[in-house]
Amino acid sequence: MSEPTRPPPSMLDRYHGDEVLPLYTGRVRVGGGTAAHGRASGIVTSDDGALDVALRLPLELGGPGGGTNPEQLLAASYAACFHGAMALLAARAGLQLVDAQVEAAVTFARDPFDGFYLLSADVRVHLPALDPIVAAELVRNTERVCPYAKMFQRGITHRVYAAELPTSPPDLHA
Question: Which range of residues forms the domain containing residue 88?
C-alpha cells in the first residue's frame, strides 16, 4: 500500500455545473450471517475487499456485542469526513491543526412521531492549539462543506428498491 497523502486544498474549489457530478461511490454488501439478521450477525464487505467487518448487536440492544454495528460505522464515517474537510479548510486558511480530533456519536432511538426508529448525531471537535473564536469559525465553516454534516442537516437523496442478486453461472463440471 502506498504512503497516505492529503488531498489538495483545491478540493474545496466550488463546482459550477448544472447537475450533480459523482466523484466516487463506495459499495458494500451485508449478509445476514448465522442469525440471518444483518444487524445481529451480518458481515459487511466492500466491493474492493478493503472492508470486511463482522456486525454484532450491541449489549444495549440485547445482543452479545463483540463486533461493530451500523451506528459505529456511521459515526466513524461522519467523524473521518468532518476531520478531512476541516483539515482542508484549515490548510486553505493557513491554520496549523495540532492534535485536532473529531468525536462523533450516532444514537439509535425510538421515534415518537411514527413509533419506529430514528438516528441522531452529536459531533464534538477538539482543536486545542487554536484560539476558541477561530476554532468555532472553522467548525461552522466545516459544517457547510462536510457532506456528512450536510446530510444530517438537509437529508439525503436516496432510493430503496427490491433487486435480484446476480447469480453465479451453474458449475457444469459438477
Answer: 69-156
